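Dear Dr. K.,

Following up on our conversation at the group meeting, I've run the structure prediction for Lrp/AsnC family transcriptional regulator from Mycolicibacterium pallens. I'm pasting the input sequence below exactly as I used it, so you can double-check it against your construct before we proceed with anything downstream. Let me know if the numbering doesn't match what you have in your notebook.
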Amino acid sequence: MDALDAKILRALADDPRATVMALADRTGLSRNTVQARWSKLESQGVLRSFERRIDPAALGFPLTAFILTRVIQRKLAPIAAALGKVPEVVEVHGLGGVTDMLIHVVARDADDLYRIAGSILDIDGVEQTTTALVMRKFVEHRLAPLIAELIGDPER
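The predicted structure tokens came back this morning:
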């Protein structure tokens, strides 16, 4: 990743539906350079799924919660597989420290969240859960400051 890649990423962040030509115009790079670098970024997994842009509330899931979970370590793989089958589980992180997993879930309402948390607790190998309901988001998911730093433009 270099400053040219970061310029392309910033232009994509500003206009995710931009064409290669529009990105070339915006960045001052040639169309071929933008196309080659975009392809490289995609193949390296730098560009993530469009799903991250969809608001779960628009799908009928306005509640967001994080479930801190302690598990039996030797059962991590089957627990992860079971969590992958729960539609309301948005993301799962393995943690180091006093808890083993951070499970990001969405729910329709409090009763739905209670059901989801119970279904997670019912998974074989899950020992304990603590649910934290998100009351407000103060900083949206963002990478623009990091991209600006790579470009050498800390003011953006």
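Two things stood out to me. The first helix runs from residue 3 to 14. Strands lie at 63-71, 89-94, 101-107, 126-133.

Best regards,
J.T.
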